[in-house]
Amino acid sequence: MEYSCTTLDNxxxxxxxxxPHHHGCEVLVTLGVGSRHEPRHRAGIxxxxxxxxxxxxxxxxxxxxxERAFEAVGGSANxxxxxxxxxxxxxxxxAHLEDGxxxxxxxxxxxxxxxxxxxxxxxxxxxxxxLNENGRQINPDNIVARLLFADHPLGQPTxxxxxxxxxxxxxxxxxxxxxxxxxxxxxxxxAGPVTHELVVAAVRHSFSEWQGPEPPAAKPWxxxxxxxxLLRWVRDAGSQVSLQLAFLLPGRDSEHAVHLRVLRRLLxxxxxxxxxxxxxxxxxxxxxxEATLAQYDDVGLLAVDLAVSPGNCLAAAIATLDExxxxxxxRIPDHELDHLLNSYRFDLExxxxxxxxxxxxxxxxxxxxxxxTIAADLADLNRVTAEGLQATARELFTxxxxxxxxxxxxxxxxxxxxxxxxxxxxP
Length: 427
Description:
Helix content is about 45%, strand content about 15%. It contains 16 helices and 11 strands. The longest helix has 17 residues, at about 315-330. It starts with a strand and ends with a helix. The mean pLDDT is about 95.
């Protein structure tokens, strides 16, 4: 067993990952609520609420007092919100584990929602980082999401919209907290030199009185009609054009899921990856290129990001899409696949030394219902073949799944050239 899990009477799942050779514990609570749970008029409330929980609790009236309490047990609490989840985490000294878990209970169960106006200004500043001086969206991730997911909540930036952020108030936070911050929607995980019995006892002591209704489900993705590539250009100041080429994919339970994780590493994982070799080492078009893979419950996205000088957009688009075409038409050589899979296995083994990675991995397993233990991932890799990877590439890397976004000081002529090439792309 890589981890143990006990469900308390209130529905809270408690995960422990024994790592006896470590000297610190990672305590993490993840909840199944994120930006895809938000209606448009409340866009950004998941992220805003995450911030508000650090502004003081019934036990620690200010954010500074709460932070000082975490530091007193060896920690420094932090959090993150994405499309499907919100996660709170901190390193805690093993000698103070029970007190650390009690702090998470105070944070999550008894927030006071202090300083709303102050935090609103902070979040509006954060949101401005995705806009240019004319108020236009310049974050390629957000632009691609809006193109592919249109009016679905997955098309909204996690930080939300300025219009919604300015209108969120105390009653909205209390209502949203009461609906989503419930034990049946949460997993608490501890990784480090602990026993499962100790962790469960500490969690039961601090969280057993937590109650709440069944959490509402996220809006499902029903798909959309797309018969050709989607393109969007946004003019912005700067010295480079940021390009993102993305493919719409099935969700994380798809038969293609493990193949997509391997293909992502093949495209962009270190200096030997195909995109780095082609675009940087052979063509000198960019300093770095990165492929990222998002696998949601019912839909996914593989995106390639790079920045190039104005005038190099067409060459970069051609080289990038040529690599996707190669994956469709050429079998990956055995030596390249063996090298790739071995590096993947090494990284999985290395992750066993990271308390934060272990806590997050197994909390996510329970929250999502997707049992991706390290053993399961290793077993999946043993079943990967060059033929299977090629079949996935043929099915999913197609023009009707493609989206291309460019942000920067592009030239009008190259925009027409890239548009023409991408629209006609037939791998």
